[in-house]
Design goal:
about 110 residues; mainly alpha; single chain
């Protein structure tokens, strides 16, 4: 049986937990430095949940997974520059969006 077929037969939440992994979570400073991208499991379970709510959901999700034997992967250490790289990428992406919005507001032109 292929892995894809086996995963397709599992409930949605199980697939999201099994196919995702978190980086080190917890603490406002840590989460801010990761741009809240360290909560991948919770994000894939609830994509519409606000990033600030991931911190509250994470311990509950981990406890439920432990209770039912669902593997919950959380990488405690990553390369120090990997976190900074993610933060810089997110920062420059937001900066680009802000610049585009300001240009559109000032000129009245659209990008379409």
């Amino acid at each position: 049986m292929s892995t894809v077929f086996a995963l397709s037969r599992l409930p949605f939440c199980n697939v999201q937990v099994i196919s995702s992994a978190n980086f080190r979570t917890g603490g406002d400073n840590n989460d801010f430095m990761h741009g809240w991208l360290n909560y991948q499991v919770e994000h894939h379970m609830w994509p519409q949940l606000s990033a600030l709510s991931y911190q509250k959901a994470q311990p509950e999700v981990a406890a439920i997974c432990a209770k039912y034997g669902v593997p919950y992967v959380q990488v405690l250490r990553c390369l120090p520059l990997a976190g900074a790289h993610v933060v810089l990428c997110v920062f420059f992406w937001y900066l680009e969006v802000v610049v585009v919005v300001v240009v559109i507001m000032m000129t009245g032109e659209s990008l379409a």
